[in-house]
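Quick one, C-alpha cells below:
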C-alpha cells in the first residue's frame, strides 16, 4: 500500500515557472538511452547465435539425409524450405510477442500471462538451459574450427575456450551497446561473405574446386530409392538447430532504445530475412554442386571451395566463420541476464539478479552465465560434440510454449485477423512440439536425458526460491501498513583487545548510538594471555573512560562465541532494551594490506549474526599515511 503526503496535484498540473522541469532526470534518461541498442546494434548483439547456426544447420540436414545416399540428399532443399517456413512463422509470432510484451521475457512472459505460472517456469528453465548451452557450444565450435586450421593448438583447446569466454564476458560487462559495437564488424563480415558465396555460386555451372574434400572419406550411406517420412522428420528436426537464437530479440526488448518495441520488431524481421535467405541459398548450392558430406570437412567449407575456389576468398569465409562461431555466445549474454532479471522481479530467482550496474548491465547475470558456461567447457574438454546433442531441445520447448501461449492470446484478445494468427501459431506449435519430441527421443542416450532431468530440477528450484520469498514477505508483513515506530532504550556492546586511538573512537561512537555502553574483552587461561589481561585491566582503570570493562573467559581460545553468548544473555535479561554490537576495525590504505589484518572483527560479526538478533555496526578506522 502506498502512502502519499503533501497537497494533491490537480488534473493537468505539470512543469511551470514555479516548478521547472527536472533537467537532471532528463539528462540521466538521455545517458541511459545511450547505453541501449539501435536496431542495427541489436542485430549485431542479439543475432550472433542465429547467424552462426548457418554454419551447422544445413550440415545437420545433410548428415541425416546422407544415410539414404545421393537420393536422400535430393531432399535437402525441400527440408530447408520447410524450416524456412517455420522460421517465418516464428518471426511473425515473436514480432507479435514483442508488441504484446514490451518488457521482454519472450516465451516466459507469454506463458506467465496465458498459460499459468508453472508453465511459464518450464519456459524460463528451457530458455536458461538453451542460453547456457549456446555459450558452451558456440565457443567450442569456434575453437574447433580454429584448431582444424592450426592442429598444433588442439592440445590447448580448453584454455583457448576459456580465454574466448573471458573476452566475451569482459566486453559484455562494459554494456550491451559496447558489445554490439565490438561485434558489428565480425557479423557484417560473416553475413557479407555468405551472401557473396551464394551469389557467386548461383552463377557457377559446377564447383570451381573440390580440393578441400579431396582425400577425405565420404559420409554418404548406401544408395536408396525411397526416403521415409521418419528420415525426413529427423532431418527437419536436426536442421531446426538453425533456428536457435530467433527468440533472443523478444527476450531482450528493454535493451533497445525508445521506441523499444518497434526497434526490436525491425531487428527480428531483419534477422529472419537474413537467416532465411542464407539457409535457402546454401541448400540450393548443395544441390547445384551435388555436394556430399565428408569426414573432417564442414559443408560450409566445401561450399566456399566450390564457389570461390581454394583462394583468399575461401579463407575469408573460414576466418569469418571461426570468429562468428566463437562470438555467438554474445547472444546469451544479451538475452539471459534480462530474463533472469524478470525471474528475480517475480521472486523466482535471488533479487540480486534484477540489479543493474552502470551502462544498464545486469552484472550478476553476466557473471553467473560465464561461470556456469566455464564449468561446461571444462567438463566437455572443449569438445562441441559432447554438448551439441543437448543444444536444441531447450529452445524447441520454449518455442512450443510461446506458440501455444500466443494461440491463447489471440483467442482472448480477438483482434481483427486473430483467427488466422491463431492458426499460424498453432501450426508453428505443432511443428516445434514434434521437433522437440523427435530430437529428445533420438538423442536421449547421447546426453538428452540430462536436459530431461535438468528442466524439472530448475523449475523446482524456482518454486523453492518463490516459497522462501513468500515466507519472508509474510514475516515482514509486506503490503500492510506497519504500526508506528517506538523508541526503546539501547545498549551498545564494544569488543576491545587493547587501548588505542581505535578504542577511543569506538567508545565515542558507541556513546552517540546508545543510552548505555559496555566494553567486553575475551580472556584465556594461558600464562601469556593472563599477563595481557592484567595489563589491559590496569591500563583501563588508569584511563577511566567511564565505561565498564567486562571480561569474558574462553577456555578454548574462541573469540566469537563468548561475545555472542554474552550478547544473548543481555538480550534475555533485558528484553525491553535494543542491544547493538559495535565492532571497531582498521581500514588499510592499500588493498594488499588487508592480508595483514587479523580478521577479529569478521569472526565476532559472524558469531553475533549467527547466534543473536542484535544489531551489528562495524566502525571503519581508515589508516592513511598523511595521518588524517
Amino acid at each position: 500500500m502506498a502512502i502519499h503526503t503533501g497537497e494533491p496535484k490537480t488534473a493537468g498540473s505539470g512543469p511551470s515557472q514555479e516548478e521547472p522541469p527536472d533537467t537532471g532526470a532528463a539528462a540521466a534518461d538521455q545517458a541511459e538511452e545511450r547505453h541501449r541498442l539501435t536496431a542495427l546494434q541489436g542485430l549485431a548483439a542479439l543475432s550472433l547465435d542465429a547467424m552462426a547456426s548457418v554454419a551447422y544447420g544445413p550440415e545437420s540436414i545433410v548428415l541425416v539425409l546422407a544415410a539414404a545416399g545421393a537420393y536422400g540428399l535430393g531432399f535437402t532443399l525441400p527440408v530447408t524450405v520447410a524450416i524456412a517456413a517455420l522460421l517465418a512463422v516464428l518471426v511473425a509470432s515473436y514480432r507479435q510477442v514483442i508488441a504484446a510484451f514490451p518488457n521482454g521475457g519472450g516465451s516466459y512472459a507469454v506463458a506467465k500471462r496465458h498459460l499459468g505460472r508453472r508453465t511459464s517456469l518450464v519456459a524460463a528453465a528451457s530458455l536458461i538451459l538453451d542460453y547456457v548451452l549456446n555459450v558452451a557450444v558456440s565457443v567450442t565450435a569456434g575453437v574447433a574450427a580454429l584448431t582444424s586450421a592450426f592442429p598444433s593448438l588442439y592440445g590447448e583447446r580448453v584454455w583457448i575456450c576459456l580465454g574466448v569466454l573471458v573476452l566475451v564476458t569482459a566486453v559484455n560487462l562494459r554494456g550491451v551497446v559496447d558489445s554490439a559495437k565490438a561485434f558489428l564488424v565480425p557479423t557484417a563480415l560473416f553475413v557479407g561473405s555468405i551472401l557473396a558465396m551464394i551469389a557467386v555460386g548461383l552463377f557457377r555451372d559446377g564447383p570451381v574446386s573440390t580440393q578441400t574434400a579431396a582425400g577425405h572419406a565420404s559420409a554418404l550411406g548406401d544408395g536408396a530409392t525411397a526416403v521415409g517420412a521418419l528420415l525426413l522428420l529427423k532431418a527437419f528436426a536436426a536442421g531446426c538447430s538453425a533456428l536457435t537464437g530467433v527468440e533472443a530479440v523478444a527476450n531482450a526488448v528493454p535493451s533497445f532504445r525508445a521506441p523499444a518495441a518497434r526497434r526490436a520488431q525491425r531487428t527480428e524481421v531483419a534477422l529472419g530475412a537474413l537467416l532465411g535467405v542464407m539457409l535457402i541459398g546454401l541448400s540450393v548450392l548443395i544441390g547445384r554442386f551435388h555436394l556430399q558430406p565428408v569426414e573432417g570437412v564442414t559443408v560450409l567449407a566445401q561450399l566456399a571451395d566450390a564457389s570461390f575456389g581454394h583462394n583468399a576468398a575461401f579463407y575469408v569465409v573460414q576466418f569469418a566463420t571461426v570468429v562468428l562461431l566463437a562470438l555467438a555466445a554474445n547472444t546469451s549474454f544479451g538475452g539471459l541476464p534480462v530474463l533472469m532479471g524478470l525471474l528475480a522481479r517475480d521472486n523466482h530467482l535471488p533479487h540480486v539478479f534484477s540489479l543493474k550496474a552502470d551502462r544498464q548491465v545486469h552484472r550478476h547475470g553476466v557473471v553467473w552465465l560465464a561461470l556456469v558456461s566455464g564449468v561446461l567447457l571444462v567438463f566437455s574438454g572443449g569438445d562441441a560434440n559432447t554438448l551439441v546433442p543437448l543444444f536444441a531441445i531447450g529452445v524447441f520447448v520454449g518455442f512450443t510454449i510461446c506458440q501455444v501461449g500466443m494461440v491463447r492470446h489471440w483467442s482472448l484478445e480477438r483482434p481483427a485477423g486473430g483467427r488466422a494468427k491463431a492458426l499460424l501459431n498453432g501450426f508453428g506449435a505443432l511443428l516445434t512440439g514434434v521437433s522437440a519430441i523427435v530430437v529428445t527421443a533420438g538423442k536421449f542416450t547421447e546426453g538428452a536425458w540430462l536436459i530431461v532431468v535438468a528442466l524439472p530440477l530448475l523449475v523446482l528450484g524456482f518454486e523453492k526460491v518463490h516459497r522462501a520469498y513468500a515466507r519472508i514477505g509474510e514475516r515482514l508483513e509486506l503490503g500492510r501498513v506497519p504500526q508506528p515506530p517506538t523508541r526503546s532504550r539501547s545498549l551498545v556492546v564494544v569488543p576491545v583487545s587493547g587501548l588505542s586511538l581505535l578504542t577511543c573512537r569506538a567508545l565515542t561512537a558507541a556513546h552517540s548510538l546508545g543510552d548505555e555502553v559496555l566494553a567486553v574483552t575475551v580472556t584465556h587461561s594461558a600464562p601469556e594471555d593472563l599477563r595481557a589481561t592484567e595489563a589491559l585491566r590496569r591500563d583501563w582503570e588508569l584511563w577511566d573512560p567511564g565505561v565498564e570493562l567486562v571480561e569474558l573467559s574462553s577456555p578454548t581460545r574462541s573469540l566469537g562465541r563468548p561475545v555472542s553468548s554474552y550478547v544473548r544473555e543481555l538480550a534475555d535479561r533485558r528484553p525491553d532494551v535494543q542491544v547493538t554490537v559495535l565492532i571497531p576495525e582498521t581500514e588499510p590504505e592499500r588493498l594488499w594490506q588487508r592480508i595483514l589484518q587479523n580478521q577479529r572483527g569478521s569472526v565476532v560479526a559472524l558469531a553475533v549474526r549467527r547466534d543473536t538478533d542484535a544489531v551489528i555496526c562495524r566502525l571503519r578506522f581508515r589508516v592513511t599515511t598523511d595521518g588524517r
